[in-house]
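COMPLEX REQUEST
Ligand: pyridoxal-5'-phosphate
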Amino acid sequence: MRPTKANVRLDAIVNNYRVAGQLAPASRSIAVIKSNAYGHGLVDVARALENEAPVFAVAFFDEAVQLRDAGIRKPVLVLQGASGAGDIAEAAAKDFWLLMHHQQQVEWVLSAVLDNPVTIWLKLESGMNRLGFLPQEIDQVYADLVSSTNVQAGMVLCTQLACADEPVSPVTTQQLSIMRSCAGKHKLAMSVANSAAIMNWPETHAEWNRPGYMLYGIDPCGSYSPDAFGLVPAMTLHSEIITIKELKVGEGTGYGLDWRAKVASVLGTVAIGYGDGYPRHAPSGTPVLVNGQRVPLVGRVSMDLISVDLTGLERVEVGNPVELWGKELSVNEVAAAAGTIGYEVLAGLTGRVPLVYA
Ligand SMILES: *Cc1c(COP(=O)(O)O)cnc(C)c1O
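STATUS: Structure written out below.
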């Protein structure tokens, strides 16, 4: 069997969910498990958190359906809301909470024929300029929905912060003030904070918080050590050395032979590549752990393989363990080397990597 696999510690995800709650004791935390729970497995993560989280959040309707089909009973907030009139009745029947961000979605709700009312969240455009109604548009949308028998009482006003990962930001302060004035006007409960805001911006904590990335045990602000908050990285991506090569000075490795040996070198070939979601842009020098020791990646990342420089390491053999990221090597560090963020790397893990739960 191919040695490449991702070990996922569900107890770490439970621990991290509790950390999110401890940082915001007056708020309820919605576990954000979109994009296959950031690569950790949608249904398994939902099952692990079902006794902890009162509500789950996903990006799309289809992800919510997948959770119900798997037997998950908790409400599911669909962050992009309905994508057709038919979604409204299905949401009411299945207890999906729909975020409203454009007028057509409102009309679908008003004209639906429902057995029971649907739970609605209103998305406020407070400065990110991506999704949501402007404050002046909310007044009419709210008035239309609050008077409809199709809508469950107690709508929530929700917004997304553009700069929560910056510890000091006039943008966040301004978004929060727009949010508070709009929620105050209509006496709506609020939801503002994502992981970075939960950790950095206590003033953004509200009735509902929406932690995502931090549930997987990694710092959303990019640091390589999440320890300060008691987060535990949940995923460790493992592979093995499958061959060892000795190179003479001047010989190269990988496509284009971009990397060349400056001294007589020992290279290990590892059974992982961009076909697994290892970032193709990771350059020579990106850290990899072999037998727990940091060594540099060398040459271009291939679809199924990478090479690492083992020169000077003692007793490395075929079959020795390799960690690509996880407990001992932050995915944030690997992502930074590849010019991206850990979110993209985790969400990019492909279906050919088996997820092994512990
Ligand atoms: C993805 C997402 C979150 C979670 O963000 P993290 O940075 O992963 O904590 C929260 N709210 C919305 C609207 C999202 O799309």
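REMARKS: Residues 30 and 169 are 25 Å apart (CA to CA). The mean pLDDT is 97.
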